Amino acid sequence: MRVVRLCPVGLAVGLAVLASAPQASAQERPKIEPTPQVSHSTKATAAFSLPLGLDNWKADIVERNGMYRFRQTNGNCQLTFAQNRGADAARAAGRGVRSTLDAYIAGVAARVAKLTRNKAATLELSRVAGKKVTFVSEEMSYTGNDNVTYHNRISTQWIGDVELLIIAACQSAEWNRSQDLLNAFLSKVSIVETPEQN
Asked: Which of 36, 16, 59, 48 is nearest to 162 (CA)?
C-alpha cells in the first residue's frame, strides 16, 4: 500500500470551496473555486496522509486544488478529502468549524431537492505524531436531479490555518451496508502536521 501526503493549498475555507457533490450528475455538482491566497505559508499546517492502492477503491481525482477523491470499484460509494487554507481568517471573522459543514451543505442544498440534515457522531483520525484528531460531523440525505437519493457524512476540523474536510457518500440504498468498507478506508488515513516556521 502506497501512502500519499497532501500539502495544503491556498483556497478559501469551505465557504467558497465545495468538492463535487457525491454521485450527482455533472449539472448539479458544486464547483471548486480557488481564491487568490498564498499557497505557501510559514504558519503551522496540517494535511491528510492517504493510502493509495487499497482493494475496492480507485483514486479518480488526485491532487486537484487540494482534493483527492476515491471511488468504490464495486459499488457506488466515494470518499473525498479536501484541505484548504483560510481557517485563521475565518476564526478572525467569528466563524467556527461548524461553518464549514453549514457552507458545504448549503452549497449542495442549492443544487438538489429534498435535502435533510441529521446529527452524526464525531470522527477520529490518528495523527502521524500520535494523538487523535476529532472531526465534527453531520449527515445529509438528498434527492439528486437524477431522482436518486444519496446519503453523505461530512466531517471537518481546523488545524492552524488549515481546514480539513472529508465527505463520505453513497447512494442511500448502499449507505448502511457500506459502513464497514468506508470505515476500513478511514482507519488508514492519518493527519500530518508541520509546526510554524520562523
From this structure: 48
Domain that holds residue 171: 2-194
Per-residue pLDDT reduced to its tens digit, 12-32: 333 333 434 444 433 333 333
Q: What is the pLDDT of residues 140-180, one digit of tens each?
A: 999 999 999 999 999 999 999 999 999 999 999 999 999 99
Rounded to whole angstroms, how far apart are CA atoms 109 and 103? 10
For residues 124 and 138, the answer to whether their CB atoms sit within 8 Å is no
C-alpha span between 143 and 155 (Å, rounded): 20
| Domain CATH code at residue 132 | 3.40.1000.10
Rounded to an integer, what distance in angstroms lies between the CA atom of residue 185 and that of residue 34? 28
Could you give the angle at the alpha carbon of 50 between the alpha carbons of 82 and 183, nearest 5°? 90
Q: How far apart are CA 168 and CA 191, in angstroms?
A: 17
